[in-house]
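Team,

Forwarding the record for the chain on the shared tracking sheet. I've put the sequence and predicted structure together so nobody has to dig through attachments.
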Amino acid sequence: MKVEQMINDRGNGAVNQFVLTVGNTIAFQSYDSMIATVDRDAKIVTIFPMWDYSKTTGKHRNIFFRDYANIPDLASADGIRKAFKNGLCNGWSIRKANGETELA
């Protein structure tokens, strides 16, 4: 597993914001909460309950989807809500997680 501190829009390390990588799966963790995982092989995005916890979480979640996952349509709360409604986003299956889990 690779863990890296997220880089924000100013080019600085974002404190307590992490991108985790295991094989072809990447995840975003804010503080102690998993926010999203992206399984590139299965084309599945899983969004966790704390995805819209705060303005700061939202800002970094959007950076994750835009810059790390390369799924810019999920780089906004409205984009995520639309994806939840459709269950899909540009060929990606969108799932809601029921609770916190580890990156598998």
